[in-house]
Structures are given as C-alpha cells and as structure tokens.
Amino acid sequence: MEQITVKASQSSYKVSVGAGIRHRLADFLPKTYQNVFIVSDTRIAPHYLDDYIASLLPNAKVTKKIIEPGEAAKSKEMYFDILDSMFEAQLDRKSLVLALGGGVIGDLAGFVASTYMRGIDFIQLPTTILAHDSSVGGKVAINHETGKNLIGSFYPPVAVVYDVDTITTLPEKEVRSGYAELIKEAYIGDGAFLDQLFAREKLDKGNQDQLIKDLSSGIKVKTKIVEADEKENDMRKFLNLGHTLGHAIEAEAGYGTFTHGEAVAIGMLFALELSEKRFGANLLLDEFQSWLERNQYPLYLPDLSAARLVTRMQMDKKSENKEVHMVLLREIGQPVTEKVDHDTLFDAVTSFLERMSRT
Ligand SMILES: NC(=O)c1ccc[n+]([C@@H]2O[C@H](COP(=O)([O-])OP(=O)(O)OC[C@H]3O[C@@H](n4cnc5c(N)ncnc54)[C@H](O)[C@@H]3O)[C@@H](O)[C@H]2O)c1
Ligand SMILES: O=C(O)C(=O)C[C@@H](O)[C@H](O)[C@H](O)COP(=O)(O)O
Ligand SMILES: [Zn+2]
C-alpha cells in the first residue's frame, strides 16, 4: 500500500492506495462517526457498497443514497435531492459523508458535504482511475448550464481510501479517461513518468502493482501543487492543462459524449501544439499522438463549431474579462499560464477542428 499525506490549509489528510483496503475502512477513519451517509451510483454500489459498510463500526447508523450514474448527476436538482435525504437521515455536524465512486460522485457528494450545515466531514472512496485526481486536492462542484464545475467550493476530504480492487470492474473507456489525467500530471511535473507511460504498448488495468505506482505518481504531482496553492491563485492552474478546450468540448458535445478524460486528452493535444508553436519546445507530440491512437482515444471531432467552443472557453474559470488564459508548456515539466487573444485562439481552434474532422 502507498500512503501520501496532503497538507491542506486547515488540516491534513492521508491518501491510502492499496488492494483490498475497502475491508478495513475503519482503520482509516480519523475519528468515530455515529451517523454515516453514503453516496454511490447504481453501477458501483452492487459491487462494493456492502464491503465498505461491513468495514465501518458495527453501531454506526448508515444511510445509502444510490443515484443514476453519469455527469448529469452533477446538477442543481440532484444537489438539493441529496441535501433533502441528508436532513431526512438527521445528519448533524458530527456526521460523515462517504463518496463511493468516481469523480462524479466525489465532486457531487463533496459539494453537498461542504454546504450541509456549513460543512461536515467527508471521505473519498475512489473507484475509477480518474479519481486519483478528483479525490485529492479538495475541489468539489456541480455543473451549471453555462459550463462545468461552475458551482463549487474548495473542501478537502478528511481521508481518501483508494482500493484498487475496484478497478477490476472499471470499463476500458473509463481506464482511458483516467490515464489521460495521469498523462497530464506526468507532462506538468514528472518527465520520467511520462517516458514510462509512452514506452508501454497498451493500457493495462490488470497489473495492480503498476497501477498503484501510476496512481501514486499522479497523486504526488498533484499533492505538491495543491499544497503550494490550495485555492488556485497561481500554480494550481497548471492542473488545468488540457481543460480549457476539454471542458468546452464536454459541454458542447453534450455531457457523456466524451468522458472527462477523453475531452481533456483532446484539449491537451491542442494545448501542446499551441505550446510548441509559441515556445518552440519539443513536447513529444508524435509520441503522445501515437499513444492516444494505439489506446483508441476518440480523436474524431466532426460536428463541433469553433465559434461556440471559443465562447465556452471564455467562460472558463481561468478567464479574466473574457480573455482566455491557457496552461501551456515551455518544456515538459515547465507549465505556464498564458493569455491567448481571441483571434489567435479562434484560428487555432478552427484549424485544429479541421484536422480532427478528417477520418
Ligand atoms: N475535483 C477534481 O479535482 C476533479 C478532477 C478530475 C475530474 N473531476 C470530475 O470527475 C468527473 C469524472 O469522473 P470519472 O471519470 O471518475 O467518472 P464517473 O464518476 O462518471 O465514473 C465513470 C463511469 O464508470 C462507472 N464506474 C465507476 N467506478 C466503477 C467501477 N469500479 N466499476 C464499474 N463501473 C464503475 C460509473 O458508474 C460511471 O458510469 C467529471 O465530472 C470531472 O469534471 C474532478
Ligand atoms: O485539481 C485541480 O485544480 C484541477 O484542475 C484538476 C482537474 O483535472 C479537474 O478536472 C478539475 O475539476 C477542474 O477544475 P475546474 O476548476 O477547471 O473546474
Ligand atoms: Zn480534469
């Protein structure tokens, strides 16, 4: 098992990554909780919910909230629906919320926990590869019609208990999605990890030792950044590499058309191309493109409008006065945030889409 401690401004918490650790959840709780509320979805709960409940203290009162899977759950309606269920379950300020699932469950349940009675403890129980990113660092949010994660807070969990056994049932599409964020962390902070990932022929979720190492490498890059800049005043923006276009694609194509990681992978390709043009760096674009292709990432974008994507990109949280600021790389491991003026952005998105709409 790997353990990484994350120091947040008000507290610190441990991220434990290991096989089978769902059977000893009680070992990872920072204190005893009498009233526990678990949020999960209908694809995950049948596999893992009972194991997690069985490993809590026997006298704890447990309420389950099992919702439909998918990005649509990060909605205002679901947010209030879960709050209603928490009041029904008579949770108080000493109660605990458990988020059993991927980034959708973590973001949603975390945001609910951050606002219920002004904030009660919550623990992330990640079940996707992508959730190495979403469960660490304390960003929790729901979506607004205008764009992704526009209603949210910074609210760290009190622990992250990451049982990689859960990855055995994760669909291949979601494996791809998670590895896109690992590639992102490698690009911004760990060149050796990037080389290792590119050297592998295919993604392989079955090698648990390697998976634990990969997740830990990504988490370490993220931890270093969020410890230095928890509230994204400065360098935390680097974790948004690929997201300015990625989030716009997710919203514009319709949530669920591309997974978050698939959209971020496309957004990274765009950001890295722009970086090479701007800084003349060698960012291993051929290796990245080949890795994306041999792992069957969707790279065909026939139906998207450059104008609409640019409008979405202007609503990105990194924008200032509608001016788009993108994360670019001077070199591998040297991210920067750069303003990209409207015309340059529009032209770049137009030619990118043109290329990505050829079969
Ligand atoms: N807060 C953050 O810092 C942060 C970081 C990255 C991404 N995110 C957010 O995370 C979300 C994406 O998260 P995700 O990729 O984990 O997707 P997800 O939570 O939607 O899970 C993907 C799918 O896999 C299923 N699933 C999950 N675990 C499973 C398992 N072990 N076995 C079988 N099926 C399983 C789910 O039911 C779902 O259908 C997006 O909303 C994104 O914006 C947040
Ligand atoms: O933790 C961060 O900071 C990130 O940017 C991680 C991203 O992978 C993640 O998708 C995050 O939710 C994006 O945040 P947002 O502020 O752009 O919504
Ligand atoms: Zn992301």
UniProtKB/TrEMBL annotation:
Stored CDD domains: DHQS
Pfam families: DHQ_synthase, DHQS_C
Domain 3-dehydroquinate synthase N-terminal: from-to ranges: 66-176
Residues reported to bind NAD(+): G103, V104, I105, G106, D107, T127, T128, K139, K148, T166, I167, T168, T169
Cofactor note (record): Binds 1 divalent metal cation per subunit. Can use either Co(2+) or Zn(2+).
Required cofactor(s): Co(2+); Zn(2+); NAD(+)
A biological process term (GO) from this entry: aromatic amino acid family biosynthetic process
Pathway(s) this gene product operates in, as recorded in its UniProt entry: Metabolic intermediate biosynthesis; chorismate biosynthesis; chorismate from D-erythrose 4-phosphate and phosphoenolpyruvate: step 2/7
E.C. numbers: 4.2.3.4
Gene Ontology CC: cytoplasm
Catalytic activity: 7-phospho-2-dehydro-3-deoxy-D-arabino-heptonate = 3-dehydroquinate + phosphate
GO MF entries: 3-dehydroquinate synthase activity; metal ion binding; nucleotide binding
Purpose of the protein: Catalyzes the conversion of 3-deoxy-D-arabino-heptulosonate 7-phosphate (DAHP) to dehydroquinate (DHQ).
Protein family per UniProt: Belongs to the sugar phosphate cyclases superfamily. Dehydroquinate synthase family.
HAMAP family referenced in this protein's UniProt entry, alphabetically: DHQ_synthase
Protein name: 3-dehydroquinate synthase
